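Q: Two folds, back to back.
A: First:
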Amino acid sequence: MDDEKIAGLTVGSVGQTHALAVLNPEIRTIGPLDRMTWATPTATFWRVEVLERLPATTTFDDVAKRVLQIRGACPFERVLMDSNAGGAALVRHFREMLGKFVSLGDQFVTAGVESGHHKQGREALLYPLIQVMQYKRLEISPAVSLGAELMEQLLQFGSGAWRGGRDDLACAVALSLWETQRVCPGFRGQ
């Protein structure tokens, strides 16, 4: 099941950055065989393989092109997108650009806008990510240069200091994690 990589994409409004994360879930053994149940305990670990921030000057078309470039280097099949920037019209645009290459998951609206299939606040989206981190099941590839900034954003979120701050990287990772748990039933957080 190492080929179940899923991407999360946050698309900022005009003047805001965009972020893309690709997570690879892996089920691992976390303990010895339980002789009462004859089962070996397992848990899912998530590895952040790609984490990238695109400048605020990046057009939506260029964001989609970059998604396809990253997919060429780190294959994934689905993208879940936070669509606050343009709502349903922007999601349709991304479906047209990515549809034949990538299955675009339902949009995930994190600002309480009614245009999405999954209306959630950022707290609901980021909480499972914080929980996975608490169990030490989120790993960041050494190749990810924004790993320290991601951890900073997650710490700010945990302390409540994220409001009004930058959370693009954390949201991109959280979107990927949320979609992985939703579409791959074998991958669940503990």
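A: Second:
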Amino acid sequence: MIILAYAYGDHSNRLFQDLHFSAFCRENRLSYFNPTMLDLAPLYFGIRYNYVFAVLLKIVIKVLKRLKYTRIVEVLNSKDLLRIIGMNKRRMIFVSGGDFRDHAATEKLRRYYSRRYRLIPRKQSMKLTKDCTTVGVHIRRGDYRGFADGRYYYDDNTYRHIIQRMTELLKGEVKFIVFSNEGIDPDAFAACAAHVEISHNAWYVDQEWMKNCDFLIGPPSTFTLWASYCGKVPCYHVATPNASFSLGDFHICNG
């Protein structure tokens, strides 16, 4: 059994971490359990998640590590993990690693994981209503002020430019939904010719709405990539303010 001992990052990073280890194990017919998903499990797995086992396992991991009875192996890729499995005769292998990826497995199993990570109905405040082409605009502020020296901390003018550019590319009737990790001033987009709505939902509902958009755009972030993967939504990450882009620059994340 492969057991993920340590979570990496927050929300979307943790979901991607769980996705890749789970997909790897499913492809290689290995048992897998992730006790670090204890707090996120109610959003996606409901009663299917073994809470008692998860809590006990987290305690056991802490005790074993403190007593130095086990080693937690940080793995980088699928070949690395297969090598470790081949060398290790133990029944349980404790692993960690925020950069572990198995894109071949996640791409192959996209349909399965899109269902597995679907937000359970009682956690959805309301469903996204679509009556025209819908573009999800992700405004990442907060921690992005300091991340990468603030390179992706864009002002409102940048996002107005994005909305204007998407309006030109898509033509016809387009609705924009703004998602953000901090409060957005409604007047910031009042001058836009397009119809702009601002989401006030929890982050996990925002992601569920993003999965149902036709396009996603914003600064580099796993938040939009997760919705792109699960919903097969074309996504574009704006690398610089006032960047020029076309619909050909949008791609669906493969995990």
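Q: And?
A: The domain at 133-249 is CATH 3.40.50.11350 (Rossmann fold).
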